[in-house]
Amino acid sequence: MKRREFIVLGGTAGLLASTGISFAQDSWPSKPVTVLSAYPPGGTSDLLARLVADILTKEYGQQFVLENIAGAAGALAGGKLARSAPDGYTILVSGSAPLAANKVVQTNLAYDPEADFEPITVFAESPALLTASMNAPAKTLPELIAYAKANPGQVNIGNPGAGTKGHICAAIIGQQAGVEINHVPYKGSPPLAADLLGGHIDFSADAPANYLAHIKAGKLQALAVTSAQRMGELPDVPTVAEQGFDGYQQTLWFGIVGPKGMPAEIISKINDTLKTWSKLAESQALLVSLGVAPVLNTPDEMRETVAREIEAIRPLVDAGLVQPT
């Protein structure tokens, strides 16, 4: 992990030097900025938070300092952001759970992601990857469904936290197939990947970054990707739709938000800087190596993304397919 972080962050410095973007002369930022990461070190969400912090540090000549606040599927970090001063000196980079899903998945959430956050941008997206241990009782998605039908209540699929997109993706597969799946939430991707490698759980549904190297090394097996198209990094792994789930398409997204009332000028600065960076071929290749693709939409477009995510998950909660915590 340390080596991967070095590659990501060190590579970023070189990319930024090639953009020709000059340091901002305005007063913001005049002191270090806190970049909250809602998950433990090592997962895709955390790697992207570190990447964003490094990009902005190089651009503005001021430290953007990462702070991991993991727990409660990102709700602890979301709560801290909601309580922060809206002065542009605290932002949150995270997967979608604390930015959207937690509103309907967590019954006592201390904040409202729609009312208490200012969208900045959806930074990147990726498919979820359905992965199995080498000793799992299924090596394809149809085999998994057949096993679940023959062994009701015996299929456990891990996810990096209740309400995360991996959780949602697996719940929709179970719903469409008419099978019972036990969803096992973890405190982030690294412990889930470790348990999968150790054979302590048979299946996972999660962002690809923590699994790609192990799949290519033959230590894990990939059953399906949840996007409409196959992944370039795993061209031989079929989509969920290709395996009997016509029209199935789910993607994970990773967004950046500030506290309610954060100045529009600062939001625009961050958005523009990241958008410029994302257009570089080297930047896109770096993101692909992490299993994600750049998005960089507008704050209004991100607001719409959050609203759609909440409304898509609400029926799953109402139907009991995703249990509120």
Structure notes:
By secondary structure, this protein is of the alpha/beta class. It has two domains: 2-126 and 252-318, Bordetella uptake gene, domain 1 (D-Maltodextrin-Binding Protein, domain 2); 129-243, D-Maltodextrin-Binding Protein, domain 2 (3-Layer(aba) Sandwich). Helices cover 43% and strands 19% of the residues. The chain has twelve helices and eleven strands. It has helices spanning 2-19, 44-60, 75-83, 96-105, 113-116, 141-150, 165-177, 189-197, 212-216, 264-278, 281-289, 299-318, and strands at 33-37, 64-68, 90-95, 117-127, 129-133, 156-159, 182-185, 203-206, 220-225, 251-259, 293-294. A six-stranded mixed beta sheet has the order 2-1-3-10-4-11, with helices on both faces. The chain has a five-stranded mixed beta sheet with strand order 7-6-8-5-9. β6 (156-159), α7 and β7 form a beta-alpha-beta unit. The chain starts with a helix and ends in a 7-residue tail after the last helix.
Write the layout of secondary structure elements.
Elements: H1 2-19, E1 33-37, H2 44-60, E2 64-68, H3 75-83, E3 90-95, H4 96-105, H5 113-116, E4 117-127, E5 129-133, H6 141-150, E6 156-159, H7 165-177, E7 182-185, H8 189-197, E8 203-206, H9 212-216, E9 220-225, E10 251-259, H10 264-278, H11 281-289, E11 293-294, H12 299-318
Parallel strand pairs: 1-2, 1-3, 6-7, 6-8
Antiparallel strand pairs: 3-10, 4-10, 4-11, 5-8, 5-9
Helix pairs in contact: 1-2, 2-10, 4-12
